[in-house]
Amino acid sequence: MNAVQGKVVILTGASSGIGEATARVLARSGAQMVLAARRGERLKQLQSAIEQEGGTAVYQVTDVSVQSQMEELARLALDTYGQIDVLVNNAGIMPLSYLHEKKIKEWDRMIDVNVKGVLYGIGAVLPHMRERRQGHVINVASVTGHIVRKTWAVYSGTKFAVRAITEALRQEEAHNNIRTTIICPGGVDTELVHTITNEEVKRDIEASMDIALTPEAIAHAIAYAISQPPQTAVNEIIVRPTRQEL
Ligand code: NDP
Question: Where is the signal peptide (predicted)?
């Protein structure tokens, strides 16, 4: 039996990109998946694909920025499988822009999804993990959680926040045997670029995608963190395309 086999994994942002690839990789290793995102049709298709390969998955349409929906997601996992071993907070959006453009709705949305969504996820699983004195919270940040450039102000800010939140969680819950992992991808070819409304910025990002990784590269990093023995916590992984400088 491998170390992923049988683990109950809640995964947000499972309808595309890194989340979808992670769902497939973990399900193939025997994880029991709880898939979440807003696009229910995509989740349904993914659940069917996983089941056709012999895997196990349930899904629930969930907006991570609505706290009650994250609580319901944790409830689904407990009602279905009786436990939660891993939460992967992966859902995120990246509408990059210059601050002077005052795209205030996009600022708000990024903070709601990328920061509050992560907090609501942690809040939803922590009582159960503390009670069991075991669990693993994996938060997908970014290399932009380490460095900042023009147009990344709010997005980077949310990813710096995700790293800060995860490190504090690690310190607070180490004595409860709860592991934390920060995953920091570099460029990955996904739908994330679609959330950019500044056409010039979007073109620049699209132009950099020729060296981008496939989502599976990040999925394997997540699987590696989960598959470590219980006493080993992989606290952070940065995965960049070899040719990416920043
Ligand atoms: P995608 O756009 O392909 O996937 C984003 C996922 O998040 C989708 O499944 C989307 O589903 C979901 N999502 C967005 N908003 C919400 C919401 N309010 N509630 C629930 N789910 C939501 O992009 P990626 O796979 O690239 O992104 C995954 C993570 O990786 C993000 O956190 C991103 O910041 C991070 N990342 C990505 C990098 C890259 O280069 N691609 C680099 C560094 C980090 P739906 O629309 O159905 O709700």
Answer: none
Residues 6 or more apart from 22 whose CB is under 8 A from it? 11, 14, 88, 90, 215, 218, 219, 222, 223
d(CA 45, CA 239): 28
185 lines ligand 1 (CB under 6 A): yes
Q: Using the mean position of ligand 1's atoms as its centre, give its distance from the Cα of residue 19 in Å.
A: 7
- Which residues have a Cβ under 8 Å from the Cβ of 172 and sit 6 or more positions away? none
Does 235 map to a domain? no
Q: What are the start-end ranges of the H helices in 183-246? A: 199-207, 215-227
Mean pLDDT of the chain: 98
104 pLDDT exceeds 60? yes
Residue 190 is classified by DSSP as S
In a domain, 141, yes or no: yes
Q: Is residue 172 part of a domain?
A: yes
